[in-house]
Amino acid sequence: MGDPGVIRPVFEAITEDGRSIVVKFAQFYNFEAHKLLAAQSLAPQLLSLNPEPVGGGLVMIVMELAGTSLDKYLDPTGPGLEPSARTQIHKDVEMAMDLLHANNLVFGDLRSPNVLVVQTADGSLRGRLIDFEWCGVEGEARYPAGMNQSLLQLKRTDLFDQLQELNRKYGPLASLKLGSSNIIVIGGDGSLVRELLDKRGSIYSNRPIEPTQEITGGGDDVIFQTNTEKWKAARKQIVRHYPRASNPEQVCLQEAESVQLLHDFLHQPEWNIQHSMRYTTSIITCLNYGIRCATYEDPIVHDMETIMAFIPRPPIDHFPLLRYLPDFMLGNWRVKAERVRDLMKKVYGGLAEIGWERGSNGLNTDNLAYKLRLNEGVTRLTRNHQAQICGIVLEGGSDIVAGMVSTVILALLEDIHSQDRARQEIDRIYDEDTLPRWDDEQKMPFVRAIVKETLRWRPPLPTCLPHRLEQGRRYLCGSGILNPTFPVICNIWAIHNNSERYKDPHKFNPDRFLDHKLSMANSMVQSDPFERDHFTFGAGRRSCPGVQLAEQGIFIAISRLLWAFEFSVPSGASVNTNQNAFYGAIRRPKKYPVVITPRSARRIETIEREMVSMTENVFSLYGSYK
């Protein structure tokens, strides 16, 4: 661990010849790692290479001053980044990390403030790493003070991998001390999930207190709501609007938006991941507010990405006592949370006003925001609570589903046999003039199996969101007493990779779900946990209420994309489907190489014709975000 008294004074200066530089002093610094990246233009150029202390045990680092912190670009009030710039900066950071790892080095403080955005001579934006205090040889490097020594030793693997090892070592019900909290981790074959989270949902349906969410949601964040009465009132309204049975009007909208998805893939295949995000976001904005997202450049999409980027939580959520420390010592978490809160109020509040205005004018009167305000005299939901209800649906319904559409394509790039087999199944039902429909989902069991298997194989939330135990209970199998207020994690990753439940769990194999005819919503409520397809959408009373809409959205997109296109890997390239090919608190694939080829000229004509029809008959019914 680092010294609690770490000192890092930093100064900006101008040399006699007018050159802007940065001078900083630190107790330790990895000059070799900095030089390694600087040689590849992945870090600022070092102007001083002396690793010896200059006084007080401090070394002096002198480097060029160039670029702007990525943190400023990601700030809600900042300049923002174009999708192409985001992709390039991400690629630069990934290249820097790969170079360090290839030299047996680790970078212990990879956060947005430690990434510089530099404009090159041709006007493009590139990423560079700074701050090598916590960089060193793997296994020997020192990491920031404040990390609790009782934490698991985090290796270059994801936390959910290590929680899986915890369950393997200590059984399906294991405990872990993380920060100042004891956390219960449920793994195994899924039986305990049914026993505890489902059957005993009345005492397992609360959430741990999350200081950042108290700020960002103003106490009304539906996902992290600790007031169970407020949470029940909110969930009731969501379930009414998004029922766990197929809604024909919602299906019609999803199929219409999927036509633009095909059209976008046809004309801009290189932006396929962004098109999926537009597709899912537009569906929710239509149903929530009566407005569309016509392009990926729509402000709603970018605002959502900014909000979702805050999901990786600061240490304050695991170390509640840290809230009493000065804010600057914790990366200004409170300031960032307040900025996200302000952005949420602006975006979610503004969208709610649009939904109300449209409904009041007789337009899209079935939108959720309009119905919530119309009934506020009965429900007693405040305006902020109404905005948060719609906002949390937008968060979950856009990012997660978009990521899964991209993940299915990635899986089928590696498993060409399954891609061809699914396409053959589709072609037996539809000709070149007809797009696949949700109504025929039961006639496409292999496509359905692909969707289910992808959600099992690469779940977007491998550990789910934590529940909180309200009352102490002794579990009858002898695992001891689970104390009140303990966070309880459903270790989805461990369950999905349990070889007793799924044969060869690491293998992508849609055949395992070929005879599974239940919808995901119906599968979740089966009394026998082994009749469930997967646990991706949670369990108990906090399970995802929008599971039906999510399943429809993924299935419609994938069946139509396979009808329209062939997906292949570029010559000489390869695809990576391991977990290191995914990123984010909500897992989604990094950009991957893919060739998207229209299957025939006639199918192109069908897409163009349907796009004109949807524009005239469906899209024209909705407004736009202003």
From TrEMBL:
Gene Ontology CC, one term: membrane
Functional pathway: Secondary metabolite biosynthesis
UniProt-listed Pfam families: p450 (PF00067), PK_Tyr_Ser-Thr (PF07714)
Stretches of the chain forming a coiled coil according to its record: none
UniProt subcellular location: Membrane
Residues noted as binding heme in the record, renumbered to the chain: 544
GO molecular function, one term: oxidoreductase activity, acting on paired donors, with incorporation or reduction of molecular oxygen
PROSITE patterns noted in UniProt: CYTOCHROME_P450 (PS00086)
Keyword Oxidoreductase annotated: yes
Serine-threonine/tyrosine-protein kinase catalytic domain location: 58-119
Known cofactor(s): heme
Keywords for this protein: Heme, Iron, Membrane, Metal-binding, Monooxygenase, Oxidoreductase, Transmembrane, Transmembrane helix
Chief site of localization: membrane
Family: Belongs to the cytochrome P450 family.
Protein name: Serine-threonine/tyrosine-protein kinase catalytic domain-containing protein
Organism: Rhizoctonia solani
